[in-house]
Amino acid sequence: MIKYHSAEEKIYICVVIKEVNHMSLDVLKDAKRIIGVKQVTKAVEKDLVTAIYIAQDADQRLVEPLRILCSQKEVTVNTTPTMVELGKACSIEVGAAAVAVLK
Question: CA triplet 54, 70, 3: central angle to 5 degrees?
């Protein structure tokens, strides 16, 4: 649990985190990537990825096993607020629950 000294500090920290997520999402436009929980899981199992992105509004029953696998394989897990935002970052017209950046 994070303790904030003031409401302004809490707002500032939230804004910085949001900017970091947006900057890191820009990487997805040009990177070699895999989209979808099943495909991302297979790629992580084969040690083909450097990092993954998971949407916070994705069904946790689907993405939690992927999070555990990434923890075991020491793969960086980034989060985005919504599946729609993650899909847009990948230049697709639908939402994406998970995306992997390939090595």
Answer: 65
On whether the 7-102 domain is CATH 3.20.20.70, my answer is no
Bridge pairing between strands 49-55 and 76-80: parallel
Burial 48-78 (b: 16+ CB within 10 A, else e): ebebbbbbeebeeeebeebbebbeeeebebb
pTM (2 d.p.): 0.76
What sign for the dihedral angle of Cα 60, 66, 69, 70? negative
pLDDT tens for each residue of 31-89 = 899 999 999 999 999 999 999 999 999 999 999 999 999 999 999 999 999 999 999 99
Taking alpha carbons only, the member of 49, 65, 29 closest to residue 102 is 49
Domain range summary for the chain, segments of one domain joined by +: 7-102
